[in-house]
Amino acid sequence: MKVGLSVRIEAKPEYAEEVAAMLRGAQELAEQEPGTVAWFSFRENATTFGVFDTFDDEQGRQAHLSGRIAAALGEAAQTKLSVPPVIAQVDLLGIKVP
Asked: CA distances (Å), 45 to each of 11, 16, 29, 63, 64, in order?
């Protein structure tokens, strides 16, 4: 794993549970992406969520950015998010996995 994405998602309060459910359901989509090595979704507080995922190379990252999860997030941004998702492309410096 060499590259990743860190995504911050801020839901409108009335849609927070729908956003949480969307992120839980997105795990199945992530499992279908051969270029996505690891994928995590999480909740920081009542309305703030995040996603962190890793890839072996830039091709995997770009495939993910043009995939179904990104499309669903873009659609949710139209009505369910208070601000557009903040997506940061990161280079991985160190990794520890079991």
From this structure: 10, 10, 24, 29, 26
Q: What is the DSSP string of 48-85?
A: EEEEEEEESSHHHHHHHHTSHHHHHHHHHHHHTBSS--
In this predicted model, what pLDDT tens digit does every residue of 79-88 receive, in sequence order? 999 999 999 9
d(CA 57, CA 11): 30
For residue 47, give every residue at least 6 positions away whose Cβ sits within 8 Å of its Cβ, in sequence order, or none.
10, 11, 12, 13, 16, 82
Q: In sequence order, what are the residues at sequence separation of 6 or more whose Cβ sits closer than 8 angstroms to the Cβ of residue 82?
A: 10, 11, 12, 47
Instruction: Convert the pLDDT of each residue in 19-50 to its tens digit.
Output: 999 999 999 999 999 999 999 999 999 999 99
pTM here?
A: 0.93
Tell me phi and psi for residue 90, to 5 degrees.
-125, 150
